[in-house]
Amino acid sequence: MSQLKILLDESDIPTQWYNIVADMPNPPAPPLGPDGKPIGPEALTAIFPMPIIEQEVSAERWIDIPEAVRDIYRMWRPSPLFRARALERALGTPAKIYYKYEGVSPAGSHKPNTAVAQAYYNQQVGIKRLTTETGAGQWGSALALAGQMFGIEVRVYMVKVSYEQKPFRRSMMQTWGAEVLASPTNLTNAGRKILAEDAASAGSLGIAISEAVEEAASRDDTNYSLGSVLNHVLLHQTVIGQEAKKQLEKVGDYPDMVFAPCGGGSNFGGIAFPFFADKAAGKQVRLVAVEPSSCPTLTRGQYAYDFGDTAGLTPLMKMYTLGHDFIPPGIHAGGLRYHGDSVLVSQLYNEGLIEAVAVPQIVTFEAGVIFARSEGIIPAPESNHAIRACIDEALRCKQSGEAKTLLFNLSGHGHFDMASYDRYFSGELEDYDYPEEAIARSMQNIPKIAGA
Amino acid sequence: MSQLKILLDESDIPTQWYNIVADMPNPPAPPLGPDGKPIGPEALTAIFPMPIIEQEVSAERWIDIPEAVRDIYRMWRPSPLFRARALERALGTPAKIYYKYEGVSPAGSHKPNTAVAQAYYNQQVGIKRLTTETGAGQWGSALALAGQMFGIEVRVYMVKVSYEQKPFRRSMMQTWGAEVLASPTNLTNAGRKILAEDAASAGSLGIAISEAVEEAASRDDTNYSLGSVLNHVLLHQTVIGQEAKKQLEKVGDYPDMVFAPCGGGSNFGGIAFPFFADKAAGKQVRLVAVEPSSCPTLTRGQYAYDFGDTAGLTPLMKMYTLGHDFIPPGIHAGGLRYHGDSVLVSQLYNEGLIEAVAVPQIVTFEAGVIFARSEGIIPAPESNHAIRACIDEALRCKQSGEAKTLLFNLSGHGHFDMASYDRYFSGELEDYDYPEEAIARSMQNIPKIAGA
Predict the structure, then answer these.
(1) Cβ neighbourhood burial of A197 (10 Å; 0-12, 13-18, 19+)
(2) A309 in reach of chain B (CB within 8 A)
(3) Are the C-beta atoms of residues B87 and B374 closer than 8 Å to each other?
(4) Could you tell me if B208 and B180 are in contact, meaning their C-beta atoms sit under 8 angstroms apart?
(5) ipTM of the predicted structure?
(6) Partners of residue B71 in chain A, C-beta under 8 Å
């Protein structure tokens, strides 16, 4: 019997994070202040600890992972790499399909990879509280877990639509000692402003970020922690791709294509960036970011400087954006409901170094069920996006007879998303059209930056 | 950094199941017919395939695991053994605590270890449908998964209280293609009888078993599959203890005590029986079954011949029983709500070869939260029983200064039990007194078997 799970020892957990900036043809576009002028690191000290800020602006290829962080990683890392033989049989494809399974973390997704690092650095500088936002709840539960491990209080602003769709993600955060609020709230100016406009607002990641940032900026003992988008977050997630490369080496294989869901970009960056290092060195590998067609940032957005949050509290970042006040439809992949995208991912896409595809909601659940019935694991709705794109490629291989090697990031399990699967089975799941008018409206509000 | 996870290779998955009957001082008490006379294997052919019946009555020490079953086991086996260093620190105990984590299976518990074997043997004899019961839903989801893997239709009678407490366990079973009904139903005589007496019946494992057995006995293409209690089920679960022994050997350790939750007995038998083999050979090791004080089968039950189900459709089995029509309080550890116990576990307990302890509900959740906040993993309510007993022993070690080595079976995660954790946190969780009167009543109905 050939091996299904390709495992590594704890000693194989990466000792350094990979910083893609060192291999990018051009330096990342700098963040700008409201005045359109580049801001310095000091502008971030109100909400981030200095070690994180240094990582945010670093151009070093390799950054050491603190032993205290690796020590926590050992709870679930190295995560397994699976050869999806049953899925290959179910599809009748000549393609070889591998998936890296990050759902083995206690929080059930890849998010703890950066949550643990961020909690550690904040603890190091004496921070007692962290605020953050969460969509599907995967990030919030990851930070709740990490805060618990380092004795830091955590307050989570959870996007209301997810708070209602996924009550047990909230319970999970509370089990790890975190406080969870449905965003928008009445506790912040940003939240009150939204509620004044729409008391029934379903919320969005952009709004929740505004609330968490506003609170962190207003308290000395409190910092803010972001689950995606920023350079240091993608940096921390590169343990995924580094392990995957080592695991594929063990079986003498290498992917032709790598797929990952893409919301803010850390899921994609985590698995894809270490392969980009090879691509930069001349190796052939296609890196595909998969986003929801109802929030098609890379495929339909505008490449421009925009705010990372709805209220415009963050610095301006050069990214593909649908407009910082765009509120995506309430799809069940809450983690992909973000108006923008990582500066690094956006620039790589703009320079044609990576690819992107947008998929509608229902077929992603169809893919998730095909996967669950062959491989056993029930995937998170976010992960279903990567599975959909990977299955589509495997079916193309079936047509063409090509035996491509495909890898995707199974970023999390769907144990807290069964209500979404219920809606899929009952035929109540919605497919949203591309929200043409809403996006046209929100794009009007992308700030005009001279010369940017 | 010393190792946290002790892993094995796929090649280390046991190739044989361990049959404890070969090492028991006395042969297991035989099942009896309603007439009080021992029944032969043929009496079981209406609901079980012959290979399963042969395992049920076998006295062979080792029974080969079919390659097709090991092939499916590789999806999650070998499961990890963890050294609970963070829990040890949190307790300040000199004891060494290890736990075997079965929650890594797609169904999230140890149950697929036998579900896969049972589905395989039924497929081998041409069975197209399986019926079963489920309490917490862990068994039902395991059989749904296994049925999906072998192309067998599965109908699950789910105890109504759990059906209502754990709707997403139902969704999970449906994701794997199974049909799920809230028991008692109107589809069987057994169900109709209960509903006639109490239309609002919360159900029980005993009732659900009656319904599933009744249906299976009435259809040629349909067999019945049981998730615990029977010899062959405990046999299949011995992969857990076999792996745990090998993993402890890797770190040069051996347990002084082994703890496992005990409902029907397969959770306990799975981890404890392979250690009993050493005990039978003279090794010192204490094996402790942990049950709920609201359904204290071993610690307060009567050792007598009784039916395995409420309606009295099964053969009579010699076991500790609270009476086959006892309906336990609606505790959240649905998998432990069973009036009886495995014949093998009961006989070992009666002969003083294993120990048992009963614990009330609230302190089991307290233990689960202590565990979740140190080790990260959120345990199933059933598992919390073993954690409670293990923590209590670790705290005794703290008093005595003994550095005992403790092992428990973390039989599943609590991702589908967060509503129960919510009740614990909100102070709404009930502690049931020992149901003195109800048990006195149901014990009246234990059949009087001459000479047994």
Answers:
(1) exposed
(2) no
(3) yes
(4) no
(5) 0.95
(6) 1
Please tell me which of the candidates B67, B70, B415 has its beta carbon nearest to residue A416. B415
Mean pLDDT of A248-273: 97
pTM of the model: 0.96
Instruction: Kindly state whether residues A297 and A376 are assigned to the same domain.
Output: yes
Would you say residue A350 lies in a domain? yes
Number of compact structural domains in chain B? 2
Flag residues of chain B having pLDDT under 50. Answer: none
* Interface membership of A349 toward B (CB under 8 Å): no
Residues B102 and B147 in one domain: no
Domain-embedded: residue A383: yes
Instruction: Looking at the structure, tell me whether residues B49 and B196 fall in a common domain.
Output: yes
Residues of A in contact with B74 (CB under 8 A): 1, 3-5
Residue A30, SS3 per DSSP: coil
Instruction: Examine residue A416 and state whether it is found in any structural domain, yes or no.
Output: yes
Q: Which of A199, A231, A263 is the last residue of a domain?
A: A231
B8 lies in a domain?
no
Residue of B171, B377, B425 with shortest CB distance to A421? B171
CATH number of the domain residue B248 falls in: 3.40.50.1100
Query: A258-281 burial, b if ≥16 CB within 10 A, otherwise e?
Result: bbbbbbbbbbbbbbbbbbbbebee
Dihedral angle at the C-alpha atoms of B297, B300, B302, B307, nearest 10 degrees?
-20
**Residue A400: count of CB within 10 angstroms of its CB:** 11
B191 and B54, same structural domain?
Answer: yes
Q: What is the pLDDT of residues A292-333, one digit of tens each?
A: 999 999 999 999 999 998 889 899 999 999 999 998 888 888
The per-residue pLDDT for A308 is: 92
Query: Are residue A268 and residue A147 in the same domain, yes or no?
Result: no
Range of the domain at A356: 76-108+240-443
SS3 category, B221: coil
Nearest to A4 among B1, B74, B106 (CB): B74
Among chain A residues, the shortest Cα distance to B85 is held by A75
CB < 8 Å to A419, chain B = 168, 171
Partner B contacted by A415 (CB < 8 A): yes
- CA angle (B443, B448, B450) in 5-degree steps: 150
